[in-house]
Amino acid sequence: MSEFFKVVAPDQAFQVLKKHMPATVGAEMVDTAGALGRVTAEEITSPEDLPAFARSTMDGYSVRAQDTFGASEGMPAYLEVVGEVPMGKAAEVSLATGQAAVAYTGGMLAGSADAVVMVERTQKVDERTIEVLRPVAPGENVVQSGEDVRRGDPVLPKGQVIRPQDIGGALALGLTTLKVSRKPRVAIVSTGDELVAPHQRPGPGQIRDINTYTISGLVSSCGGLPIHVGRVEDDFEAQKSVAAEALDMGDIVVFSAGSSVSSRDLTASVFDSLGDPGVLAHGIAIKPGKPTVMGMADGKPLIGLPGNPVSAMVVFDITVRPAIYHLSGCVRPPTLPTTTATLTRDIPSQAGREDYVQVRLSEQDGTLEAEPIFGKSNLIYTLVRADGVVRVPLEKGGIYAGEEVSVRVY
């Protein structure tokens, strides 16, 4: 078995796994409308110009700009209205010198027109004549054909997490399917003799299994596919069997609990039994979450999260989350939302260890304040009551009340 508690720095935790991991887990085609949060598996280029025709950005009149030059309220330009271009229709009217046609926002321009005069800059003389009170330049109030995207232009790079606006942009080009990375499958195993299903009433010494479901939510939030392998008792052979099943089912294997220093904690031994290289690190220099196990087998990451829910959530963000994005081929994983707040109480720490402290946010006299929640890491409501978390860097011995801190917002 590998050396027990081979502690690594927090910024090295994922790197320990990354150098052994494959680049991606493969690709598949999906409907664009349902591709939110997926990762593009190839560069996507435009099959056409967008817009496909010159469009008005205002309600007004299509004109030839040169016919308005010199116009003013004191000396307007007089134009003959020779028709209109209805919305959703091709232009069937073309302009000669001194002519205009009614234009609508988003509609085509009349033939020969190169600008639009907004209706507020005109006055009707009669049903066939308008006064133009200000000149327009060629292209004014017009979106030109291909101004948004040209045919062949790259529109989405490979490795991008697809956002709502990306879906809209792809559909605007008629791209109804996209090639994306397959969702990495994360096989989740919860260990411990004390665990029962959430719908069961715990007996003496028992607790409901919540980590399976908390971890599943975290996996889904960063584009992974959670797979519930099951709960397993504190028995080496039983855990080894379930771990082998999880390794076969998932691209990442996550064990919940079983990682601390105890004769009944078997995760490291189980990981070593699955194949080379086995356990790569046992311990991260953080609080909470130090007793984390990380390993590899069959080219797949093995991550043993602490059983305490606060610890598990902290460690997930620095190990499992980046592993999921890496296997998705994501070039720039989304940054976690942060805000700046003033700390209301001291946070003690010690150099050489990163501390993660839950905080509650509130606004006082126009200032956002962060109040530390010093609950124990095995209490789920420490997380439920928190609005975010503050990180105390390795080199700092704590943070004093009144200092501004960066809060990772949940």
Residue runs with pLDDT of under 50 for 5 or more positions: none
CATH superfamily of the largest domain: MoaB/Mog-like domain
**Average pLDDT reading:** 93
Q: Which architecture of the largest domain does the CATH hierarchy give at level 2? A: 3-Layer(aba) Sandwich
- Number of helical runs? 8
Largest sheet: 6 strands, mixed
Q: CATH fold name of the largest domain, please?
A: Molybdenum Cofactor Biosythetic Enzyme, Chain A
Which oligomeric form is depicted? single chain
Can you describe this structure?
The protein has four domains: 162 residues, Molybdenum Cofactor Biosythetic Enzyme, Chain A (3-Layer(aba) Sandwich), CATH 3.40.980; 55 residues, Alpha-Beta Complex (Molybdopterin biosynthesis moea protein, domain 2), CATH 3.90.105; 89 residues, Molybdopterin biosynthesis moeA protein, domain 3 (Beta Complex), CATH 2.170.190; 72 residues, Beta-clip (Beta Barrel). 40% of the residues are buried. It is elongated, with a radius of gyration of 31 Å. Strands 7-4-6-5-9-8 form a six-stranded mixed β-sheet, with no helix packed on it. The protein has a six-stranded mixed β-sheet with strand order 16-13-17-21-20-18, with helices on both faces. It has a five-stranded mixed beta barrel with strand order 22-25-24-26-28. The protein has 410 residues and is an alpha/beta fold.
Features:
six-stranded mixed beta sheet, elongated, 4 domains, Molybdenum Cofactor Biosythetic Enzyme, Chain A, Molybdopterin biosynthesis moeA protein, domain 3, 410 residues, Molybdopterin biosynthesis moea protein, domain 2, 17% helix, alpha/beta
